Amino acid sequence: MKIHPQINSARTNPANSSFLIFPPFADPTWAYVGLPALKGFLARRGIDVSIRDYNIEGLYFLLAGKTMADWRQRLTSRLQALNRRQKLTLYEQMEYWRIAEALPLCRDFFDCLAIMRDPAQFYNQKNYLRARDGFEDLFQVLAAVYFPFRFSFNRADHLLAPWDFKLLAYYIAEQRSPFDRFYRQQLADLGEPRFIGLSLTFVSQIPETFYLCRLIKELFPACFVMLGGPCIDQIVRNSDQKTVSRIFDYADAVGLQEGENTLEQLLPLLNSQCEDLERFAAIPNLMMKGTVPGSFVHGPALTFDLNEAATPDYADLELDRYLAPERLLLYSPTRGCYWNKCSFCSYGFNQSGRHAYREIPVARAVADLQAMQREFGVVNFYLSADVLAPTYALALAERIIAEGLDLRWSTDLRIETSYTPERCRLLYQSGLRAVAFGIESGSDRVLRLMNKGIDTALIRKINRNFHQAGISTSWMTFLNHPGETGQEAGETLALIDQQGSMVDQFIAGEFNLTPGSLISCHPEQYGIEAVYHTKGDVFRLFPLFNMAENSDGQEDEDALDEKIDKLSRRYHLDHYPWAGSISTHHSFLYLVHSGPRVFAKPWPAPAKKHRHKDSLLPVKLKFSPADCRRREDVFMERYLAEALQPGENGLTAPLSFDHFQKALQRR
Length: 667
Ligand code: B12
Ligand code: SF4
Prior knowledge:
The chain is an alpha/beta fold. The chain has a domain at 324-576: pyruvate-formate lyase- activating enzyme (Alpha-Beta Horseshoe), CATH 3.80.30. The chain is 42% helix and 14% strand. The chain has a seven-stranded mixed β-sheet with strand order 2-1-5-6-7-8-9, sandwiched between helices. A six-stranded parallel β-sheet has the order 10-13-14-15-16-17, sandwiched between helices. It has a three-stranded mixed β-sheet with strand order 19-18-20, with no helix packed on it. Helix 9 (180-188) packs across helix 10. The chain is globular. Mean pLDDT is 93; it is low at 1-5. Iron/sulfur cluster binds at residues 337, 339-342, 345, 347, 386-387, 414, 438.
């Protein structure tokens, strides 16, 4: 396959056009479905919008030779400058060791992209791991160049402090975005846009989304800038009024919940140059600043009727530019969760009460898959949804078979009695090759506490049915649900262990308190004494909590960690978006190519790290990177012990960008 290293530049655009942008950092192995879903719907209504995936195009910019040359130069000069000092402050030491470690990693990473896109190399585990490690090195370089920020395909944050407006202002004013030059080139190609909508789906897109807002307003003061997507919805719902108000310093509007009906009404209104706020206030799910300072106008909440959904339109995206040797498309046949009762879950818009479980009629969904297959030559699909109801999944499978579609798909399903061996075979026949289950716990008491509606006997039985039908099964579990004992956590690991021959991938994560979940709404019912946030977490994304009683000791935790390590050593597990993590594109491709057990055994150790000879350190180090790192660790441990503890009001812990900076100065 021929690879074009250059960054795609936008096509010619007429004046007053509308764009939807997907900002970095997110999974670059496939195109995310939110914006194509909107474009498909709007096109049906005769409204034209163009999509730009800056997440994938931005990656090409990061990989370009000129970008790396620029970084190498910056790191070299900075290292030389620090080396000239007699003494380094702690903050400089933090930067120093990162630069010393990153400089030898600087090289052309384009071969990593080439491996990921070449089937012959992708399915060779050693080559694959080499390329994967290359990307991780790239992010290590980025963390040194853009210190104190860190990036990956699933993260973009400060090394400690959560995003607040001060941190965002610093990020923007100091041009800390790795994409600044890329954005300026891309935006210049947009002509004179009337409307730009940015999709803030994942937390990892926060800094780049706000950065883009500012840049767009600087370049196109008259352009209407709007934010939408699950992450901004979550932020607006959970934050206080002052925070929400400040969001409108960056954007003209926020779209809550689903955007189809909102954009359907907003875009024609903008084209008609209407300035009557009352007309905007009538648009469903739209939120804007009111005329009185601190006030908002807010359209009625509307849940999208999936009978009106259209085939997602991926035509603006070059599908072969994603980081994979084959194409795969995301499709969302259902929205919401038909169960929607689990204590810990706040999936998307679920807990808002406005996101009922809905389905695209089966015949339509299959026609959509067929249309996408025809237009984009795709065989692989990920049904991207909270969950499919069993009746729906089975009807879909029957219809796929009846229509003679040749496709392979994967999705998330709930453990349900309806999945008999015969029905699992039907699902396989329709192309289902991988399924992820929210198993959560191996303790029946904890499953009841979670309101999960399943028990371990059913888990064993249904998982076996899928496995025996040839469908790969992934188990998502977590430990430390409030009220869970150490022994019960051990039961989860024991269940994975016992069922290991039929569990193809697993994750044993840690309980996270999700805003909007039942636990966070009624913490006292789960033995939680206090839920609090750090001062910098103005977006209310990372609630912290203290249990009323601390029943388990450190000993249990260590023993559990050891058990997890032991179990993990039997598998090849990895983090997003790499092969070995659950529900990713790469994992799916490997499962289909090499069989369901491909991750149920360790992979060969990664090849030795490649070091480019030009990348040797340009100066003799004056300070010891190891010592610098150790001092950082000591400081961080002490600092966090204080900064994460709630103050006297019990509601706020002091950690914030400001607090961190002051703590550094006090040293
Ligand atoms: C399927 C799914 C996945 C899949 C695929 C994700 C992917 N990268 O492609 C998998 C399992 C891999 C996954 C992984 C993760 N996920 Co996920 N995932 C989902 C899920 C269940 C459905 C997403 C979907 O397809 N929705 C259907 C589409 C059509 O809807 P949509 O994207 O919301 O878009 C609509 C609206 O938001 C709106 N809209 C969107 N953009 C815009 C822009 C404008 C201008 C407007 C007006 C409107 C608008 O209109 C769209 C059409 O209605 C959602 C939960 C949910 N129900 O949304 C979580 C969700 C998106 N995931 C989430 C998270 C956290 C993750 C992970 C970070 C988890 C982890 N711990 O690693 C990883 C990240 C992976 C990565 N690097 O990208 C969060 C994101 C919010 C957040 N707090 O970050 C969600 C919302 C779940 C939650 N906890 O609340 N995920
Ligand atoms: S954890 Fe899964 S089954 Fe439970 S409410 Fe959330 S989406 Fe539904």
